[in-house]
Amino acid sequence: MLIIAFGLTALAQSAKVGVLTANRTGHASASRSTAPTWGLPSVPRFIAFYGGDINVNDPNAQGFANGNTVEISQANTYGAVQAPPAGKVVIGGTFGNNSAFFGYFDGQGTYDIRTGVSEGNGGTVVQSGTAVETETPTGRDPFGLLEYTTSVQFAKPLTATPGTTYWVNETPQCLSNPNCADGEFYYLSNSQGANSVNGWAQVPQQAYLNSNYFGYTWANWCDSSLGQNQQQCAYLSFGLTR
Fold it and tell me: Is the pLDDT of residue 14 over 50?
């Protein structure tokens, strides 16, 4: 079951108003999950960073609007990760765990990597584009919605500057599929870091929402106006590949 949490009233762009967040109601045992068919790259050495899986039984589990669909024309959620203070790290792509209504996709996703993001400020674009997207079900169903790992490869590799914080977004799309009318996607939180890879690199309380549809311009998800507690908004379930 979803809690409808708008944070606004008059910005709907269709007869069915999109929902800003997806989360749990009732007792933690109400959620279930099947054995995951982990959608991440099968060779661990290809994963440079992964924040970790969502715990579907955590009362603080959360999904944040993140999609470009017929229903929600633009909502992008960014997670923050800091490059190691020394050494050369080359990143070739990014992936994120998103819960989805119905599980319809276009087969393409957008990516956007930035530095210097702050409240109301989108910082500097380092790399962005649209690429072929893979969508793999994980076997988990947070909030009763199926979870997919969506991933893209960058047009060219990114060499990370040591010690720099990067804000990373990968957004699934559903615009051209005839079944897209009710599609919505939610970037999932990660509160315990299960199965993380270099999870220490994620910067807490630095997830941002940028969405014309919902009327938020580079808003920190931990801002009180968005209705999250500090655990719900702390970490996202996303990663980077070499």
Answer: no
